[in-house]
Amino acid sequence: MTEENLSTLATQTLEVSLGPQHPSTHGVFRMNATLDGETIVKLKPVMGYLHRNHEKLAEDMTYLGSMPYTDRLDYICSMTNNFAYALAVEKLAGLEVPERAEYIRIIMAELTRLVNHTLLIGFLLNDLGAFFTPVLYAFREREKILDLFESVSGSRMMCNYFRFGGVKIDFSPGFLEGVKSIIQNYPKFLDEFEKLLSENEILMARCQNVGVLSKELAISAGISGPMLRASGVPYDIRKVDGYSIYNRFNFRVPIGEVGDVYDRYYVRILEMRESIKILAQAVKEIPEGPFISPKGAAGAKAPRTFKPPKGQVYGRIEAPKGELGFYLVSDGSPKPYRYHVRPPSFINLTILEDMCIGNKIADAIVTLGSVDIVLGEVDR
Amino acid sequence: MFGFGVLKGMLVTIQNFFASYFSKDHLTTVQYPEERLSAKERYRNFPFLVYDQAPEDPRCVACDICAKECPPKCITIVRDSDAEGKPLKRPKSFDIDYSICMNCGICEEVCPFDAIFMDHEFELAEYGRFEDLMYHKDRLLKPNDHFKKIRPTDATRIDAKLAAKTQKPAPPVGN
Amino acid sequence: MKSLEELKQNLESKMPGVTSVLEEGCLVISKNDWLEVAKFLKSSPLYSFDYLSSVTGVDYPDRLEAVYHLYSIEKKIGPLTVKVRTDRQKGEIPSVTPVWRSAEFQEREAFDLLGIHFTGHPDLRRILMWEGFAFHPLRKDYVAEND
Amino acid sequence: MTTPNTSQVDPNLKSEMQKKGIFVTTINDLYNWGRRSSVWPLQFGLACCAIEMIATACARYDIDRFGAGLFRPSPRQADLMIVAGTVTKKMAPQVVRLYNQMPEPKYCITMGACSISGGPFKNGYNVLKGIDRYIPVDVHLPGCPPRPEALLHGLIKLQEKIDGQVIEKTEWYQKGLKREFPVPEFGPNGLIPPYNPDVFTPGQSRLITTG
Fold it and tell me: pTM of this prediction?
């Protein structure tokens, strides 16, 4: 078949629905892809299959009643969801947080970042075809951190540990030793993980120059988190807003250049190494003292009496997936009038089509894997 | 040469394979039914009611705070009343729907009488939904020493508090 | 964040005829000239709000409201909250998706759950509920089906 | 409660023969032993419980020891559907269609409070109050999320149930078996029909002892 009579061949595009039940969609997410052979012509994401009406339920529940629901937003990093919600309500009600509670929160947030990035790399390799081997490494390390979460908060995944004005309860005995052992052993695991993956030619061939995201498109599409930094934008909310006590720790923010899938993978590995540095400093400097402010403790004991003043607030943090924001409108009653969650993975999906057009269908699955979506947060 | 990265990866896998014969921490599997992980003290699964002497008078006084504070509303309490209808400080029926409970522990936090706590029991798979998973008062009540066995530090703190409260039953009248 | 009043003066000086009200820390813009203000906020060298963080729909008893939170990445200046109001029956607000691409999904969600029609949106469809759903569930007067 | 031992071989005869190294069993026992030790689950995760299901499939809790480690992506090759996560009304038709596509004999474990009864999200307008409105469920596994060991315990209970089945009386070998569950459609405010009458009787609400 020479070139010219190829063009006279009438070809059709194929409509493929990578449906809600698909091994590669990290949950119930659907992509209606229009294919010309293997290359993607159009890709429309369809969501809502896990829309659990968290915002409608929160409107007739007390402020503390919604705290366990924030665990189920991004169900891989439950502590950072609590952190964002607690910060927003503290800003609304004007509660201040004692020193020790701030350090506890930083330790929990950075441990959650380790869990999230390790899991993401495992699932990204799953999408690349290395079925389940990197996930086994990732989950072996995750179990160690989940044991720490369980010994402190009582539950492996749904910690419900933060309260407005501090945390629910102090460390359990032996927790700090656990964190110290994580600080020692995790870099060794990361070196092993990098030896396993980073120089792997198949990974490099499949991930480099795939799903490239330019800096301007990333900013205008509201992309946040490691995806934004992989495209070369030095914007980390821990440095920009300096919320909680993040400006006491010195850590660097890794930046990528090309903005392809390999950059996003490597930025997350470097971010894990920075998180371990933060953990080391936090464990060294943690003071003794109360773990919750007296007003916060009273609010936790009787949530119906916790009435923040009328008004509205928008609090945001650097969650492992990006900028997680809470917009709360209070009318003075113990129940919020409007409760909105700004989920990072929902907005990071806006440009999934731009990154996938022109690439092969297999690359679209890898690009979706590198966007790091969790459906509980996408559909709320 | 080209395949060196892939070989390095395979080297890691081989190291892990042989390491599982020598070093203990590479053998991470817990053989569940025979070998069990020791439950962490603060582990919380489903709530249970505590009684001190006899199951007839639990610590719960049917004040309904936990039923109001429970986010998914899975607790239903009916207050007991004696012969001529005067309400008593005791629940006639206390139902927790285990198929709705989200193990969040808020009922334990807000209970002013230390009557409800989160249990460590997790082997609760059932065949029937409505008849098996609706826990009534008799299945929820557990003695205080069960609570002491699973959560020693909290139990000693609460027993000390309750003991202190019973020492001075009523404030000295009139002085 | 320099000061909101100063921004209001700049706004009125650059674009006469724009009525903007300051209300507890937010800028309330009327919906007919919201698109020009958006373009001005993004392109002005003084502020360059190039990062639209979140778009939220809120249902008040007498009005529907879209709340925009804007940040500037270059100048690292904090949240500017802009509110645009419309009536509850036929809520029309000009879409800012041509200005900031991040509004695309969030405006579709506000339309889906609250019924705010964003005119000029490239693809205004329901995003979370299925197509045949006939209500806007986040409104206060929505009654769920009890089964 | 262990399921009644329906094998007709009386136990002391069996132990006698075993001492002499002869192993006696019935076809039914052998058949059930083969089926229960290789239950292939469907690779089907909806929400948070799916992460706990993957953790069960990983090194520490290792569902492979029960023969159930091979997660089949396509329903045509799976015989156990673990509904792990919240079944929303938008997802319910897909779940029922997947269950219909699985070959007999098929089983269903509802893992987590959400798939049993809607769980913490049961007052949501888009949340189905339990998947047993449309498909029959064999084992209910409460918890939010249930621990990996609890999922293994649920699998053991399912294996006991499979042990208790007798080949002649099982329904999927009867002639004219029609186990096709109707797939609900999307209505203006919910699913049409709201439940499948021959699988779910609406009267069974929570038996609250009010008397």
Answer: 0.93
